[in-house]
């Protein structure tokens, strides 16, 4: 029997199961949305972690709960890395698949009471309903369905739940990168774009600080003895902003400028904070070289410029491997009776960190939602059965490499 014939009835069964689990999905989503779990609310995040861990325990996963040290004086919630072995070895064609979601939101404590979960027809509202509690519950629902269906044709499934994605994952970054080690595929459970598209690529972000050192002097008596760092900084702002448009899908933004202390002193020091977003690691490197080149030629004699890279979130690149994953997802969607596309975005997430390890990643595999980070955040609950079935079918397709597309 050919692979498509073998897969088609299973896809239909997945959709049937997803519909059967719709009421439970909505109940679970309402329960999680009712928990305030902002990134800076570790107790709330850990309440979500308690709930997720209990569900994973019941599904037969071995759960490693990792206590994390926060950064910047903020305590972090815990991260979860849960594993379940399949019945295939790698030698038999089994593959290891990482599913990634996050438990935190951008909202302050009290928001869940102010804007509780509600359904308006097919649209659900509430803090985190789309980003990312809708995707988190979808992933757990898929795992439940696969267990009920006896699907174990994979080497290993790993479920990652992080506590601080909304602030750049400062505490959990190492956990995500370690979880990606040894995996064959990464599946991001952020919700799909508003038009239903998956996410094939995310720009990376590099943050730089440029410190300009000049020489102070009395601005009225002997200004010629000074070297104005603010003037050099002004020239740098123009030079760095002019890098926009030099490379496709690259943006450069001088977001912070600080200089001087008093108007009657020739400015002795200035500071620029620069954000670079780029679709590829090569482009990030090109911009870094351009920044270094501009810094090596200060406009004002007697000034110097030091460049420091403060942070780097790697891009999730559009690669042949991720395109192959997309083709599998599109085939599964067609079997389910709908079409999906893929898009790139300038926003970053844990998928960037996972992709930065070299793992191919496809993101946006949660239900359809939008207006993230706003009071209008929404989730289309009518999209849940199809998207849950799609995710399940994709796990099946990727888990056994002996089965063709």
From TrEMBL:
Keyword Zinc attributed: yes
Active site: 104, 165
Domain of life per record: Bacteria
SUPFAM superfamilies: Bacterial exopeptidase dimerisation domain (SSF55031), Zn-dependent exopeptidases (SSF53187)
All copies of domain Peptidase M20 dimerisation, residue ranges: 200-301
Entry's Gene Ontology molecular function annotations: hydrolase activity; metal ion binding
Statement: the UniProt record of this protein carries the keyword Hydrolase: yes
Keywords from the UniProt entry: Hydrolase, Metal-binding, Zinc
One Pfam family in the UniProt entry: Peptidase_M20
Cofactor: Zn(2+)
Stored PANTHER family: ACETYLORNITHINE DEACETYLASE (PTHR43808), BLL0789 PROTEIN (PTHR43808:SF9)
Protein name according to UniProt: M20 family metallopeptidase
Organism: Streptomyces triticiradicis
């Amino acid at each position: 029997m050919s692979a498509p014939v073998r897969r088609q009835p299973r896809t239909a069964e997945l959709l049937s199961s997803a519909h059967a689990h719709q009421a439970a999905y909505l109940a679970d989503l309402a329960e999680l949305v009712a928990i305030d779990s902002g990134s800076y609310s570790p107790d709330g995040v850990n309440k979500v972690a308690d709930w997720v861990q209990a569900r994973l325990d019941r599904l037969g996963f071995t759960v490693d709960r990792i206590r994390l040290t926060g950064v910047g004086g903020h305590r972090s919630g815990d991260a979860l890395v849960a594993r379940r072995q399949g019945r295939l070895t790698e030698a038999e064609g089994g593959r290891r698949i990482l599913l990634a979601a996050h438990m935190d939101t951008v909202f302050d404590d009290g928001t869940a009471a102010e804007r509780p979960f509600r359904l308006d027809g097919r649209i659900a509202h509430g803090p985190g309903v789309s980003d990312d509690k809708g995707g988190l519950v979808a992933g757990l629902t898929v795992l439940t369905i696969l267990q009920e269906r006896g699907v174990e044709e994979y080497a290993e499934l790993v479920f990652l739940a992080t506590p601080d994605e909304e602030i750049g994952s400062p505490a959990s970054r190492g956990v995500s990168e370690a979880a990606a080690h040894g995996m064959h595929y990464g599946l991001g459970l952020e919700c799909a774009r508003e038009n239903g598209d998956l996410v094939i690529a995310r720009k990376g972000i590099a943050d730089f600080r440029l410190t300009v050192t000049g020489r102070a002097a009395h601005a009225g008596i002997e200004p010629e003895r000074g070297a104005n760092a603010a003037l050099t900084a002004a020239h740098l702002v123009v030079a760095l902003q002019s890098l926009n448009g030099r490379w496709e899908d690259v943006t450069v933004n001088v977001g912070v400028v600080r200089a001087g202390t008093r108007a009657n002193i020739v400015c002795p020091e200035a500071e620029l904070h620069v954000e670079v977003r780029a679709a590829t690691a090569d482009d990030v490197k090109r911009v870094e070289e351009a920044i270094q080149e501009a810094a090596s030629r200060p406009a004002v004699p007697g000034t110097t410029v030091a460049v420091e890279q403060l942070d780097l979130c790697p891009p999730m690149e559009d690669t042949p491997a991720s395109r192959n994953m997309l083709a599998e997802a599109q085939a599964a969607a067609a079997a389910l009776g709908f079409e999906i596309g893929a898009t790139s975005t300038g926003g970053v997430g844990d998928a960037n960190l996972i992709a930065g390890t070299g793992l191919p990643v496809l993101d946006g595999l949660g239900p359809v939602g939008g207006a993230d980070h706003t009071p209008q955040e929404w989730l289309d609950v009518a999209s849940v059965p199809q998207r849950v079935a799609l995710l399940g079918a994709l796990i099946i397709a990727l888990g056994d490499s002996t089965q063709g597309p």
